[in-house]
Amino acid sequence: MMWLSDMFTARKQELFLDLMRRQAELLVRTSEALQAFLRAPSPSGAEAFAGMQAASKELVGETIEALRDTFVTPFDRQDIYNLSQGLDDMLAYLASAAGEVESFNVDVTPPMMEMARLLDVAAHDIRSAVENMDTDPQVAADCSAKARDCEKSVEDLYRRTLAQLFDTSDVSRIFKLREIYRHLSNGADRADAIGKLIGKIVVKAA
User: Fold this and answer.
1) What pTM does this model have?
2) DSSP letter, residue 72
3) What is the 8-class DSSP label of residue 202?
4) 203 near 124, Cβ under 8 Å?
5) CB-count exposure of residue 113 (10 Å: 0-12, 13-18, 19+)
């Protein structure tokens, strides 16, 4: 009956890979939606992010449940959990930025658009890394390294933008924009953390 045990083990391992791929795909959809929303903000556009956040939370829950029910996993159990949570955190920051643009009723700025573009590039790199973790570790490592580049670019832009912002006198606008920029910057921090984690995963699995 060893073949039967192997079959169920393979199915369980594929389940984890599928959950990670679905979550990475959802992150890309969210980053693309953020760019579209910033080009044309609207209440309905902002509301769509709530559904993406809910879907991400559901995938995190499925991952946790699968970890509880499975003895053998394709990668380290803690790494799987951390990756799922990291993807969810990054998505949440992107969604929060969109929500605050709408709720604060502020105009979209060029730095917002550029940060969102950089985060979208990182999200696509993360998706490629996740898709290749089990089949091509070198591609996964290369893509995860590219995703980490986002953090420095966004952080540099964030600091320059804040310096310019605090030279203005509209205090209300300053604090509203700072909050939105902070969410985008935190999203880049998560991209860096995800990239580091995927790099660790593929090294440990080699």
Assistant:
1) 0.92
2) -
3) H
4) no
5) middle
Closest CA to 22 of 65, 70, 67, 55: 55
Q: Which two tokens stand for residue 19?
A: 């959950």
The tokens for 79 are 């790494």
Yes or no: domain 2-205 corresponds to CATH 1.20.58.220? yes
115 to each of 7, 97, 157, 201, 205, how far by Cα in Å? Answer: 45, 11, 8, 27, 33
What residues contact 53, with CB distance under 8 A and at least 6 apart? 91, 92, 95
Single out the residue of 133, 108, 142 nearest to residue 204, CA to CA. Answer: 133
- At residue 122, what is the residue type? A
Instruction: Name the token pair of 43.
Output: 């209440």
**Chain segment 159-206, per-residue pLDDT in tens:** 999 999 999 999 999 999 999 999 999 999 999 999 999 999 999 876
Q: What is the pLDDT of residues 52-107, one digit of tens each?
A: 999 999 999 999 998 888 777 788 899 999 999 999 999 999 999 999 999 999 99
Measured distance CA(16)–CA(130) in Å, rounded: 11
Length of the chain measured in residues: 206
| Domain ranges across the chain | 2-205
Type of residue numbered 194: I
Q: Which of 196, 76, 205 is nearest to 137 (CA)?
A: 205
